Amino acid sequence: MTPLLTVRDVHKGFAGPDGLVPVLRGASLDLAQGRTLALTGESGSGKSTLLHLIGGLDRPDSGSIRLGGTEVTRLDDRGRARLRRDAVGVVFQQFNLIPSLDAAANIAFQARLKGARDPAWENELASRLGLAPHLRKFPEELSGGQQQRVAIARTLAARPRLVLADEPTGNLDEASSSAVLDLMLDLVRQTGASLLCVTHSEQVAARMDARVHLRGGQVAP
Length: 221
Ligand SMILES: Nc1ncnc2c1ncn2[C@@H]1O[C@H](COP(=O)(O)OP(=O)(O)OP(=O)(O)O)[C@@H](O)[C@H]1O
Known about the structure:
By secondary structure, this protein is α/β, with parallel strands linked by helices.
């Protein structure tokens, strides 16, 4: 299968009071086009850090991250911004919706930036995610679960090749989490995207095609 994402020997540390604190110490993983992968690990093990590096939100100290034909670590700020706009979609733990835009405009936001709006697909996403009655509401008028579904719709509306999700159903109860996850997996598969999903939940991890575990700064099967 074609590898979409190849992470090799990635190191990343953060400055602490006593010098550099290593977080990733030679992390490697592969993700094929159209596959889903769970990334688990204890709190503080570096899961979000690795997701940020893959999404071009931050740079590793060393190592290689290849996405499609692009070496992400060699991109300058503009290149990384383009990568985030065109190829990668991120569903954050905190949703990051734009407070001044209603749900419909939030859903369209990423696709609009990319210059690839598809209103029919946006409507399908809104309807499948149960958001149709809420499209004119602003984020502050939406429940946590509704905001989460808007964030998922916004990401998928832009049809990214790679979806990075950080605890995408972390704020939902178990039944809603399972329903939203089902939908997200279904919609990800419909677009042919790959999904790398950070999770603490055994149930969520078990739904992915494969899973890896981050321990001691490295990725173990
Ligand atoms: N920008 C930063 N500056 C300094 N330290 C950071 C920064 N980002 C992350 N860290 C540190 O790196 C370590 C790993 O953090 P990270 O958020 O990647 O862990 P995680 O596995 O995602 O945790 P959780 O499951 O709790 O979300 C933590 O010790 C954290 O304090």
